[in-house]
Amino acid sequence: MNKYRLLDIEFEHNGYKQVITPVILQDEHETVLVDCGYPGFMPLLAVEASKHGINFDLITKLIVSHHDIDHIGSLAEIKRTYPHIQIIAHELEAPYIDGTRKSQRLEQAQTTFESLPDEAKPQAEQFIRLLQSIAPAPVNQTVRSDELLPWCGGIEIIHTPGHMPGHISLYLPASRTLIAADAVVIEQGQLNIANPQFTLDLQEAVRSVQRLLDYDIERIICYHGGLYDGDVPTALRELVQRYRK
């Protein structure tokens, strides 16, 4: 059986309280962290892990869903502090995480900058500088869709592009749980597409949600929104229908 722990990381951003939900999976041999928050979040992750009785230095693997700053911001610091941790990502994401290629989110922010109203440009400039400050980190193992990782009762990789081309979600068959990352979010109790205005390919993101209906999912852990344990198939179908109208 997969043992998963939700790390509810609360913080303030631009004056608003926000929460992200990385996940720790654990068995008798491996402790796997999924995504790691903004730069400087390693102490927050360690404190939240300790609430579940998990010492951060026991983490053996870190799976990255995609290279957005709120998912990889602390990655380089974690790798420097705990070099034994193996970093895992989709093969399409690896060049952006290790610095071989320019961040797609940075490319998007720079490309759209001139079209912004003047009052929005200072915040956009700040965001661009923040993206430029992210330190690269090595990827020790790349994965592909449908690959089954043998840890923690089995972790199936689902390629869920749209938000970013190399975005992955994780299916835990033993507990019928989906770790969605940013494939879907919870907003006002409903599943939705994460930041549709910033999604690199919205129609592909909708197709990824459709693809999730092929899996026997009882609950979804969203990076933004936490645990959704309602009628998952109905919620996913309704989400697809909203965007296909």
TrEMBL record:
State the Pfam families in the record: Lactamase_B
Please indicate if the UniProt record lists Hydrolase as a keyword. yes
SMART domains cross-referenced by the UniProt entry: Lactamase_B (SM00849)
Which residue stretches, if any, does this entry annotate as coiled coil? none
Instruction: Spell out the molecular function terms from Gene Ontology.
Output: hydrolase activity
Looking up Gene3D superfamilies in the UniProt record yields: Ribonuclease Z/Hydroxyacylglutathione hydrolase-like
Keyword Hydrolase applies: yes
| Catalytic reaction(s) noted | 3',5'-cyclic CMP + H2O = CMP + H(+); 3',5'-cyclic UMP + H2O = UMP + H(+)
Residues in Metallo-beta-lactamase domain copies: 19-224
What keywords are annotated for this sequence in UniProt? Hydrolase
Q: Which domain of life is it from?
A: Bacteria
Function as written in the Swiss-Prot or TrEMBL entry: Counteracts the endogenous Pycsar antiviral defense system. Phosphodiesterase that enables metal-dependent hydrolysis of host cyclic nucleotide Pycsar defense signals such as cCMP and cUMP.
| This protein's name | MBL fold hydrolase
Please spell out the taxonomic lineage of the organism that makes this protein.
Bacteria, Bacillati, Bacillota, Bacilli, Bacillales
